[in-house]
Amino acid sequence: MTTESTIIRLVIGALMIGSVYAVMGMSYSLIYKATGLMNLAQGDFLMLGAFVGLTFYKTLGLNIVLSFILTFIVMFALGYVVQRYLITSLLNKGASFSFIILCTSALSLAFQNGSQIIWSPYTLPFPAIFDTGAVDIFGAKVAPENLLVLFIAAFGAIGLFLFINKTKLGTAMRASALDQTAASSVGINVQLTKGITWGLSAGLAGVVGMALGPVYGVYSTMGAMIAQKAFAGAVTGGYGNIYGAVIGGLFYGFMETFVSAYLTTTYKDAITFAMLIIILAISPTGLFKEKVIE
Amino acid sequence: MENILEIKDLHFQYGEIVALHGISLSIGEGEIVTLLGGNGAGKTTTLTAISGLYKGITAGEIYFMGEKINGTAPHKIAGMGIAHCFEGRRIFSQLSVKENLMMGAYLRSAKSKEVADDLEYVFDLFPRLKEREKQAGGTLSGGEQQMLALGRALMQKPKLLMLDEPSLGLAPIIVEGIFAAIKKINESGLPILLVEQNVNAALEVANRGYVLETGSIVGSDTAENLLKDDLIRKSYMGME
Fold first, then answer.
1. Could you tell me whether strands B160-164 and B82-85 are parallel, antiparallel, or unpaired per DSSP bridges?
2. Is A166 an interface residue toward B (CB < 8 Å)?
3. Alpha carbons A102 and B140: distance in angstroms, whole number
């Protein structure tokens, strides 16, 4: 294999994982922007999506596109329910934000253990989606499932971007994030838009998780490390800034891919998080300042 | 004449603090009614109670077009046709002028001819907004933000418009323009409930006024009579 094709392969790999971090980072930022909260169970939405997708695709034998759509719907519903019934009821009881964040951390554990009970404590294989073997891209051999991850994540990120900026409901979500009182005074059901925000970010994480199934296999902690990297990306990009999250996510995707290819695989995560600490030490609000944080 | 809004013996508290001790007031069709009173008299509280933004009503009723609305969620009250322009304007700072206005029409079909006509109406009323259509709301001057807040409220096509301190912090020349717009808006038949520190300007445009003091109504009269009232002139207009 030529060096050129190695680099192409690495770039595609970096884009794949980077776009996963990007879309997960966007979902972190979205939730933060819309509700001022941090959802520590975000990675577990990804993991649950992988299990749910596996159930639709393998156990029930449904068509792959239908499985993706149903996974999105199930995960959307789960995210919506978590916000509307768990988070909102805590807020109504006067719980402070730090307790709610703790609650999402507990939720994360519950999801991970629950998935072990419902599905399996071991890594489940996700059957190949495509009949073809590796695809040739400029001389580099790439599994089509990896390209699917890239496609789903990019599609999700662009779709989310368009939804937030170009649709009425998306604009209403931004309006609610800026000023809840003013938003409800023009007739926006702020609680509903918050629920939709959580639903969207869970749904997106879920389909990304399902796409990752064939690449990594499906297991209860698959979301944890991805979520941490995506979180690092979101923080680096300026927490709450969804565009910054994309850049931050891609940055860590490229960094970890090239660090493990040319330097060390053992310490790639250490290097990733050291990078985060350095960036935060230099610029505490991340690279792209987000007004909401101030 | 049927009343658009009718408040009967309304009591309101913020937690333990009692803000309204049983006020009653009404607004008829096409009227501009103003609430006068010093800081903490309960003017803004009255508006907040009407739009349901803070759940603090402990007794009494609010009827809007014959329907009891206390206890209704704020977005539903907005949907019934009450627009609330806040003190401090509270436009969506990071949304463009156009997006702000379209959020006013959130409950209406964005593509309908009526919404397009109303947008045209707002732009005619405030040509400045048309010029700055694509600019973020937060980059506008104070006067322009007030125009935007008014415009956003009008995009709701309300049946009652509530204005809280529309002149606050604005230069006199701008205030004049805002009040001219209020007058013009009312001429189209829209009833307005106006809270305003600038008592003189408020009474100039209003039909009637209520005087609030520490959560109670201590007087009400036509705007004409209130303007002549010595006590009002002394207490709120700084005239001897």
1. parallel
2. no
3. 40
| Total number of domains constituting chain A | 1
Output the CA–CA distances (angstroms, integers) from residue A57 to A133, A210, A251, B128, in the order listed: 20, 10, 32, 56
CA proximity to A187, closest of B12, B110, B146, B25: B110
Cα–Cα dist A103/A109, whole Å: 10
**ipTM of this predicted structure:** 0.90
Chain A closest-CA separation from residue B102 CA (Å): 8
- State both tokens at A37: 């909260």
CATH of the domain at A118: 1.10.3470
Among the four given CATH numbers 3.50.50.60, 3.40.630.30, 1.10.101.10, 3.40.50.300, the one describing domain B1-78+160-167+193-240: 3.40.50.300
Interface of B with A in 93-112 (CB under 8 A): 93-95, 99, 102-104, 106-107, 110
pLDDT > 70: what percent of chain B? 98
Q: Give residue B238's pLDDT.
A: 64
Q: How far apart are CA B48 and CA B56, in angstroms?
A: 9
Please check the confidence at residue B120 and state whether its pLDDT lies above 90: yes
> What gap in Å lies between CA B99 and CA B148, rounded to an integer?
11
Task: Yes or no: say if A183 and A176 are a contact pair by the CB < 8 Å rule.
Answer: yes
CA distance B149 to B155: 10
Ranges of chain A whose pLDDT falls below 50: 292-294
**Which residues constitute the domain of residue A271?**
3-293
Measured between beta carbons, the chain A residues lying within 8 angstroms of B84 are 185
Would you say A79 and A198 are in contact if contact means Cβ atoms under 8 Å apart? Answer: yes
Averaged pLDDT for residues B126-146: 95
